[in-house]
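Title: Prediction job returns without error message
Component: structure pipeline
Severity: low
Priority: P3
Assignee: unassigned

Description:
Job completed but the reporter wants confirmation the result is attached to the right record. Sequence as submitted:
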Amino acid sequence: MKNDQTNLVESDLDEIELVLARVESSLHQLAEDQNDPGEVVSWAINLSSDFVVE
């Protein structure tokens, strides 16, 4: 059972790492789009959907 818990934690960490990579990519895109408010709103909506708790 201990191994199952370890695998779950590693899986969670992998998922967190993927989300952080998406956030980093989005921040770079936001920096490029900062002169277009519509793009900033779109970015914020897309980012918030990444953090929906199921």
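Comment from assignee: result matches the submitted record. Residues 47 and 53 are 13 Å apart (CA to CA).
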